[in-house]
Amino acid sequence: MEIGGLFTALLVGAVIGGLGRLVVPGRQQVSLLVTILVGIVAALLGTAAATVLGVAHTSGIDWIELALQVGLAGAGVTLLANRSRPKLPR
User: Fold this and answer.
1) Which residues cross the membrane (predicted)?
2) DSSP output for the chain
């Protein structure tokens, strides 16, 4: 991987992860690094899903692919936020 590709992946991961955090209601106790990592994974999985569905390459902005990526990032942030939250005794 070239250095430009690494910076692009970090930037896209930060944006997708940030958008994923925005669609999840409430406050999440997830660090910025974890958010970026979730965003990178969600971007890769969302692109793969869009390719399988046949909507990855359209003219203009790929809104369906972006929605898949943000949805996956939101699910990832939610999963990790709920996992790191301490359990209260009943």
Assistant:
1) 6-24, 31-57, 63-81
2) --HHHHHHHHHHHHHHHHHHHHHS-S-----HHHHHHHHHHHHHHHHHHHHHHT-SS-SS--HHHHHHHHHHHHHHHHHHHHHHSPPPP-
Give the span between the Cα atoms of 20 and 89, in whole angstroms. 30
Which of 5, 67, 11, 58 has its CA nearest to residue 39? 11
How far is the C-alpha of 17 from the C-alpha of 9, rounded, in Å?
12
Evaluate whether 43 touches 77 at the Cβ level (below 8 Å): no
Q: What is the pTM of this model?
A: 0.79
Q: How big is the chain, counted in residues?
A: 90
